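Second attempt. The first submission of Kazal-type serine protease inhibitor domain-containing protein 1 had a stray character pasted in from the spreadsheet, which I only caught after the job came back as garbage. Lesson logged: always re-copy from the clean sequence file. Corrected sequence (318 aa) follows.
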Amino acid sequence: MILLWLWLFLNVHAYTCFPNYGSDDAADDQLIDQLIDPRDAADQIGNGTRRCEPCEPALCAAARGCRAGVLLDACGCCWECGNLEGQACDPPGGRSEYYGRCGGGLSCRVERRRAPGVGMEEVGEMGVEEEDGEDWGDEPLCVCTEQEPVCASDGVTYMNTCQFREANFSNPQLKLKERGPCKTVPVIKVAPQNQVKGLGSSLVFLCEVFAFPMAQVEWTKEGLLDLLPGDDPHISVQSRGGPQRFELSSWLQIEGAERGDSGTYRCVARNNLGSVSASATLGVLSHEELSAYLTASVSEMKEMLDYSQSRGDDQDYY
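This time the job returned cleanly.
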């Protein structure tokens, strides 16, 4: 008896609950289950179980805060927010209407995801890059159709026009200055870090630089006139583009560290607009000295932790 009343209630209010969709007679027995599980209900739209009814714009919810613009829903009635770059999406022509469609300037493409830290294989229009790893399957994502970087009036380089439009949504005063990256003095995104190592250890200093035009990176050591590595066989320098566009990563590597390797090392990046540098200190200790240094460091950290706990800094306040 209860199910009968529920069936009658749903039939009376079906059009109110779903202003853009009506149900076929053959699907009435599944209506309750579809309403309980939103994903199943959404899938049924694309599978043809529901059909679009005459549009009633007054029943449409307002689409607000749409950073990727607005578009009409699957029935062409209500305006809804488009999905942003990197969000999951429903491929064109697909049967599912679950994730939604991509906003303006974006297209839904398939990427083959792999386990974290293993790599990713891109499929289709994105190109193919094969790497070993456990395959997680295909996932359609929104990808910006224009991958050309642009320079904005705030002096920031946006890697594609979609990123610029998102920023412009939050800051309407932002203007497109020119196509292509902003010309800038090099900026060190990742600076080399201080290190303490034992005799005979191997170590690497890393320096990541963003610049346009592309920067040239050099390494020096305080007290030496020549650029590194010079003719020292246990020191080497390598550079390559990346990890992001218009970035350069450079490594200074030391194999079998010696006492004389202690000192301050400097990463210097320059282009025709200027230069910038960042430095880090290396200390090379004997095994006994290193052991004492590590013991003292642990003791100092423990004292700081005890002091913090005595003040109640580890408590959460709401």
